[in-house]
Design goal:
The structure holds two protein chains of two kinds.
Chain A: H1 4-22, H2 26-64, H3 69-89, H4 96-127, H5 133-148, H6 151-156, H7 159-195
Helix pairs in contact in A: 2-3, 3-4, 5-7
Chain B: H1 2-22, E1 34-40, E2 49-54, E3 62-72, E4 75-83, E5 95-99, E6 103-106, H2 132-135, E7 136-137, H3 144-150, E8 155-161, H4 162-167, E9 170-179, E10 185-196, E11 202-206, E12 212-221, E13 233-236, E14 247-253, E15 258-264, E16 272-280, E17 286-293, E18 303-307, H5 308-314, E19 327-334, E20 339-341, E21 347-348, E22 350-352, E23 365-368, E24 376-380, E25 385-393, E26 399-407, E27 414-421, E28 424-428, E29 434-438, E30 447-455, E31 467-475, E32 480-483, H6 488-497, H7 499-513, E33 515-522, E34 529-534, E35 540-544, E36 550-554, E37 557-559, E38 564-568, E39 570-576, E40 580-586, H8 589-612, H9 616-634, H10 638-644, H11 649-664, E41 667-674, E42 680-682, H12 707-728, H13 739-742, H14 744-754, E43 758-761, H15 770-789, E44 793-797, H16 802-816, E45 828-830, H17 835-849, E46 853-857, H18 863-874, E47 877-882, H19 888-894, E48 897-900, H20 902-912, H21 915-943, H22 948-952
Helix pairs in contact in B: 6-7, 8-9, 10-11, 12-21, 14-15, 15-16, 15-20, 17-18
Classes of the chains: A mainly alpha, B alpha+beta.
Chain lengths: ~210, ~950
């Protein structure tokens, strides 16, 4: 029962949603909208699970004095302070919650994001090492595309921007579309497997 | 000790952060807003007031000005705010807030109780000696004891969900006892429909004309500290006469014996009720020759046709031969019957004939829009149009690139386009909005580009000689190509050098002058409304006819005993005969019976009077009254008669509500082609082939645009079925080896040998993403193997809903492997929903736990490289799989193995080797083969200009 009922729900709703694509009627649209509202309602309840997990993992670390348990204190203190400020003063502009968000969350997030520039340079170095014919072709294409995207490329010769456009619009787009076709089919196949009950891993454990 | 050092380090950073903020300059918010004035809004219906005040200095870092309103100065409720950027402050020395139109008052989400505003200071009093603490309240509460008595201080508009109004109201009879001037006691009883506040969608307010309203302002600074309350200022609304019309044109068409009037509306047109057109004779005497109501509340009118005959009725001395002596003016009248004339002095009419008018739109058709939920009507007319959006030459003037756009309609859907410049012809089989010409002409001379079309045949055939031409010239000064925009001197040269091209240009400019106005009327109204103005280029319009979901009722009456608001209990049904243009019906059977009873009493009273009198004239008038009153009971639309035969209110209202919605959503249409200056022609009202003019949009049960998709899905399902069957029978299905998947065992073995944990990130997306589901399916297999090898697996999660599912999967994997004892619930854990915070968490785990193998399976965004590069630095074996095309290059570069796109979805099948799952994989391959064949075939036939195959497939 623990698996059969969820499976039945998934199969029934899966087929109803497939039908929704082909049936534009008012009833079909209303059903879809009604269901979307339910998803919004269910979502917030899962937050409790997330916070529970976070507290349990870090609580255990502190309790056991696991390596680096100090970070767990910081995590829990940050969670409690942020939650309390939100509940007490609200989350509008000018509240302590917004201050924490702007002065901790945003700059720390931006710091992580800015690291990406260095990582891209490092990844590019790895990718462009001309160790084989394929890597050499990749290197040449990359140089042309990079030059074609800046004004110096146009200054050297107008062919560079033209070739850049061609590389992006023909071989690159063809490969992208090929992958996208496969992805589309893969998604459809996975959805079908789930709807038909062939793929059941998402149901987790428990006996039928 | 080490950990204490780390905490100390973090605290130091925090200290610097705080000290930076604290040291920032912030002037105390201890001064009230000054200069508050409240003035009447001009030209409106007496519903608007403008508040002005002086903003506080920028240094005070104000983030919002909050506005409070009340009907007495001792209790003001929050009605809105103006947010301000504290960095820039307010530029200028005055701030304004317009309290106009319908303003939100109260609904079910309002606060339960009346609460004083936060941050008020008891000790500070304003100029009138009132402290903010005494008077400012938060939003109007939903407590009827508070808002009920205030209702009468405003005009109230209630918005009620239609179904609630029709089926869920409670009937209540109100009896008013009044004493007449003669001293008699007059009792009036009214039945109303009651609803609780939560049954209403909203209640809106508007000011009552001539009443005083009180306002105050408070400013909040960056720390949300409120300034002292401003001075409390009152304002009184005035119902002003309408604003003058901007333009007014009168045109007399002598051959058709009619006049066209056209005008443009002022800024505030909501209050306009009707317009009057006046004729002034040669002596300046004024005659009203035409009057018509606006289609309130939809659109005020902007034009009128008046025949000479109808003018003669209002002005008997009218003589068309004297038209040049007559002058005209128009008066707009508001709901208070105040009139404003458009012109200070009347204007003469342009005297002409209908020969100057363009042809009306051809092929005008109105039909239900297919493949929708029944909320759109399709209107189309005229032949296809081609416009030029951009043209440019290369530096050597040897190439000309033309960017074009097509405006077509259902009747003439363009399939092929031929463009001709100076005999140089290009045919577009694929309409990609651009075409390149090799040129051999002088770019400084005007050139003609002509388009001819080949259209899909849907009953009508495009005339053979139909074409659209544009004239273009290279502008040396501006260095761009001008299209259909010649200067005076260029035009003069053209007239001399190429009269034919000149004619084409003049004809196009004339064509460009006329736009289309779509008019419609439903079965509930007696005036056409004007829903859409289409430019001269448009050829099709989808008119949205939304479903009826709400009813509007004014001025509710509150009852504290049952906590309900009572509104009018009549529902509009349809436009029934001329004498009942808005036929309404009581919503309760009991109410209907009571109304009928009262009418019968009146009839009996009249009958008694007839019996008692001998005056023939009085008898005649009483008989007419009896007939009118009898009609009120008996002369009803058939649908109402049917409804009234029902035994229950619910059954009756079901019929009446259907009739109400149908009448409101059934329209007829016509199109007016106009230059906005009184020169216009109309199509006749569209009549369908069955002779009916009104059209009701139909809800469709199948979307024909999705036929190809349906065929593909069915084909795929059939293939899956057969492949699964084959696999079950034991046929060996060959599956291409995927290196990344085959390496999973080795990667796990490595982690086991090294005694380090495995990291598995199932993407950052939610459970509704198929890539996440595919990632979880792989997690199931990896976790099982990890359990078998007794290797620790760490699964950080970003989505709350994914967390319990992943926990269950890992737990089940341990059970399946026969190692339930090794399952640790905390090995699958939530980190955060913030993208980069999640990355730093995962990176920290990689470094601290020294994971030997990292899996990234699912949907990833910009964080992918941050994680994999860190993993690469720690020396872990990394296997990634994603369908995010933009992230694939990063994974390929930094990971040892990458599952590209569909391989991610195939991985679980590959790992499980179950026939059912392998069957779907094989079917997927066959469908891919079919797609490849279609692509190749499509390319081949399109190359030889056969576009039918390409057009079978929907554009998206």
């Amino acid at each position: 029962m623990k698996r059969t009922i969820p499976l039945l729900i998934v199969m029934t709703l899966g087929f109803l949603f497939v039908l929704h694509v082909f049936i534009p009627s008012k009833e079909s649209v209303e059903f879809f909208d009604w269901f979307m509202k339910w998803i919004k309602v269910i979502g917030p309840f899962a937050i409790i699970l997330g916070i529970g997990s976070l507290l349990m993992v870090h609580g255990n670390k502190i309790k056991r004095k696991a390596p680096n348990w100090g970070y767990s204190i910081v995590t829990i203190v940050a969670l409690v302070i942020t939650t309390l400020t939100g509940f007490i003063w609200g989350i509008q502009e000018g509240t302590p919650y917004m201050w924490i968000f702007k002065n901790f969350n945003v700059p720390l997030g931006a710091t992580m994001f800015s690291l990406l520039a260095f990582y891209i340079a490092s990844a590019a170095y790895k990718a462009f090492r001309a160790r084989s014919i394929e890597a050499t072709v990749l290197l040449a294409a990359a140089i042309i595309v990079m030059l074609g995207r800046v004004s110096i490329g146009q200054a050297i010769t107008h062919w560079i921007p033209d070739i850049t456009e061609w590389i992006l619009n023909v071989p690159n787009l063809a490969a992208k579309r090929g992958i996208m076709l496969g992805v589309g089919l893969g998604m459809t196949a996975t959805s079908l497997k789930i709807m038909l009950g062939i793929e059941r891993t998402y149901l987790g454990g428990g006996k039928d | 000790m080490k950990i204490y050092m780390k905490i100390l380090f973090l605290l130091t950073i925090l200290f610097f952060l705080f000290s930076g903020i604290v040291s920032a300059k912030l002037l105390p918010n201890d001064e009230p807003v000054t200069g508050l004035t409240v003035e009447d809004l001009p030209y409106d219906d007496g519903g608007g007031l403008i508040l002005s005040w002086n903003p506080l200095p920028k240094e005070k870092k104000i983030i919002e000005y909050r506005i409070y309103r009340g009907v007495t100065p001792d209790s003001l409720f929050y009605i809105g705010k103006i947010p301000v950027d504290p960095k820039t402050g307010i530029i200028g020395d005055t701030m304004r807030y317009v309290d106009q139109s319908w303003v939100f008052f109260v609904d079910a989400t309002s606060p339960a109780k009346q609460r004083r505003e936060k941050g008020q200071r008891k000790e500070e009093k304003n100029a009138q000696g009132i402290s903010g603490y005494d008077v400012l309240y938060r939003r109007m509460p939903r407590d009827m004891k508070v808002y009920g008595p205030i209702l009468k201080e405003y005009r109230i508009l209630t918005v009620i969900p239609l179904k609630k109004y029709v089926y869920k109201t409670r009937m209540r009879e109100f009896t008013e006892v009044d004493t007449t001037e003669e001293g008699e006691i007059d009792t009036t009883s009214t039945i109303k429909a009651g609803l609780k506040l939560e049954q209403f969608r909203y209640l809106y307010t508007k000011h009552i004309v001539g009443k005083d309203y009180y306002y105050a302002i408070q400013a909040l600074n960056l720390t949300r500290r409120a300034s002292p309350i401003s001075e409390i200022v009152s304002g009184r609304t005035i119902d002003n006469p309408p604003e003058k019309l901007k333009e007014f044109y009168a045109v007399a068409y002598t051959d058709a014996e009619k006049m066209h009037f056209e005008w443009t509306l002022p800024t505030f047109a909501e209050d306009q009720k009707q317009f009057n057109i006046y004729l002034y004779d040669e002596n300046g005497e004024k005659y009203g020759i035409f009057t018509r109501a606006d289609a309130y509340p939809y659109t005020p009118q902007t034009n009128a046709i008046v025949t000479f005959d109808s003018i003669a009725v209002k002005f008997p001395a009218f003589n068309p031969a004297n038209m040049k002596w007559y002058k005209f003016n128009i008066g707009e009248i508001d709901r208070k019957n105040q009139e404003t004339l458009a012109k200070d002095s009347p204007i003469p009419a342009e005297i002409t004939t209908t020969a100057i008018l363009p042809d009306p739109p051809k092929y005008f058709t109105v039909e239900d829009n297919p493949n929708d939920k029944g909320d759109q009507i399709r209107i189309y007319f005229d032949e296809s149009f081609l416009g030029i959006s951009k043209m440019h030459y290369n530096d050597e003037f040897t190439k000309l690139n033309v960017n074009y756009f097509i405006k077509d309609n259902y009747l003439f859907k363009v399939r092929k386009l031929t463009l001709n410049i100076n005999g140089n012809e290009k045919t577009e089989y694929v309409l990609d909005d651009r075409v390149k010409f090799k040129v051999n002409w002088d770019p400084n001379k005007p050139m003609l580009i002509t388009a001819t079309f080949k259209c899909r045949n849907k009953g009508e055939k495009l005339p053979e000689d139909y074409s659209i031409s544009h004239i273009f010239i290279y502008d040396k000064n501006m260095e761009f190509v001008r299209v259909d925009n010649l200067t005076e001197s260029e035009l003069n040269d053209l007239q001399i050098n190429d009269p034919e091209m000149y004619k084409v240009y003049i004809k196009y400019k004339e064509f460009e002058k006329y736009n289309y106005q779509v008019y419609k009327i439903n079965k509930f109204s007696d005036v056409y409304r004007f829903p859409k103005l289409l430019s001269y280029m448009e050829r099709e319009y989808l008119d949205r006819v939304g479903y009826e979901t709400v009813e509007f009722r004014g001025d509710p009456r509150f009852q504290l005993d049952d906590k309900r608001l009572y509104v009018n209990s009549y529902l509009g049904i349809e436009n029934w005969k001329d004498e009942y243009p808005f036929y309404t019906m009581a919503i309760y059977l009991e109410q209907l019976e009571k109304n009928n009873e009262e009418i019968r009493d009146e009839i009996a009273k009249f009958q008694k009077e007839i019996d008692e009198t001998t005056d023939e004239e009085k008898i005649d008038s009483l008989n007419t009254l009896i007939q009118d009153y009898t009609d009120l009971i008996e002369d009803k639309p058939p649908i109402v008669k049917l409804a009234n035969q029902q035994k229950t209110d619910k059954a009756r209202m079901k019929i009446l509500n259907n009739a109400h919605c149908t009448a409101k959503r059934t329209f007829n249409y016509f199109i007016r082609k106009t230059d906005g200056k009184g020169h216009y022609v109309d199509t006749p009202v569209y009549t369908q082939p069955d002779g009916e003019q009104y059209l009701f949009p139909v809800s469709n049960w199948f979307n024909n645009n999705e036929i190809i998709t349906l065929i593909a899905v069915l084909l795929f399902a059939i293939l899956v079925y057969f492949m699964v069957k084959l696999a079950k029978k034991g046929k060996k299905l060959y599956i291409r080896p995927i290196a990344g998947i085959e390496e999973i065992d080795n990667a796990l073995g490595r982690a086991t040998e090294m005694g380090r944990p495995i990291l598995f990130v199932p993407g950052l997306s939610s459970i509704s993403d198929v890539a996440t589901l595919a990632g979880l399916a792989i997690l199931s297999k990896v976790a099982k193997k990890a359990a078998e090898y007794d290797t620790k697996i760490l699964v950080p999660i970003r989505d709350f809903i994914v967390l319990p599912i992943a926990q269950e999967i890992v737990k089940e994997a341990h059970y399946e492997a026969g190692r339930p004892d090794t399952y640790d619930k905390n090995s699958v854990f939530f980190i955060t929903t913030a993208q980069f915070a999640f990355v730093s968490g995962v990176n920290g785990i990689m470094i601290r736990e020294k994971t030997a193998t990292n899996f990234y399976m699912g949907m990833f965004w910009a964080e992918s490289l941050l994680m994999t590069e860190t993993g690469s630095m720690t020396g872990a074996i990394q296997i990634a799989g994603t369908d995010a095309i933009t992230q694939l290059p990063f994974f390929i570069t930094t990971c040892d193995y990458t599952l590209i796109g569909e391989e991610l979805y195939a991985a679980s099948a590959y790992l499980s080797k179950q026939p059912l799952i392998l069957g779907t994989l094989k079917a997927q391959d066959y469908i891919k083969l079919l797609i490849v064949i279609s692509v190749v075939l499509g390319t081949l036939v399109s190359t030889v200009h056969l576009t039918f195959f390409m057009n079978w497939f929907p554009a998206k």
